[in-house]
Amino acid sequence: MIGLTLKQAKAGFFDRAVVQNATTVAERKVLSRFGAFVRQRAKTSIRPRANPSPPGSPPSSHVGLLRQHLYFAWDRDRRSVVIGPVRLNKGQGDTPPLLEYGGTATRSRWGRSYLAHYRPRPFMRPAFDAEVPRLPPHWRNSIR
């Protein structure tokens, strides 16, 4: 007969629920922090100035709505973080993807419609790519 109680024997085994819960909490914290860093880098890359930015560089902020409405949120179902601009009530909401990837859109001015061509001015992907190398140190000692 072994000189262990049931409680002592159970303590020696891997407690799956406790480890999974600690991993989920750590994952949420680390990815939320990562989302905050990407958001801040994207916001600072959008400079306020009167003239348009050159294609291929982050867009200029004329009114400031794009900078003000960059958010991040933890998606519990997918266990990931979503980072980017929110769709505002006014307009079609196609401006952020047009700025990021470029493309064409139908616009109207003074009652006349025309096709506007947008060259890409990425701001989210460069911010994400710049922060990815800094992600592994955040995982260090995160699961407790």
Provide a descriptive summary of the structure in words:
It is a single chain. The protein is of the alpha+beta class and 144 residues long. It has a domain at 16-87 and 124-139. 42% of the residues lie in helices and 21% in strands. It has helices at residues 6-11, 16-45, 65-68, 95-101, 124-131, 135-139; strands at 47-48, 60-61, 70-75, 80-85, 103-109, 112-118. Strands 1-2 form a two-stranded parallel ribbon.
| Beta-strand proportion | 15-25%
Distance between the termini: 34 Å
The SSE order reads: HHEEHEEHEEHH
Tell the overall outline: elongated
- What structural category arises from helix and sheet content? alpha+beta
Tally of DSSP β-strands: 6
Cα-atom radius of gyration: 23 Å
**Oligomer kind:** single chain
The gist of it:
With 144 residues, the chain is of the alpha+beta class.
Descriptors:
single chain; 144 residues; alpha+beta; two-stranded antiparallel ribbon; 6 helices; 42% helix; elongated
Topology overview:
Elements lengths: L5 H6 L4 H30 L1 E2 L11 E2 L3 H4 L1 E6 L4 E6 L9 H7 L1 E7 L2 E7 L5 H8 L3 H5 L5
Parallel strand pairs: 1-2
Antiparallel strand pairs: 3-4, 5-6
Helix pairs in contact: 2-5
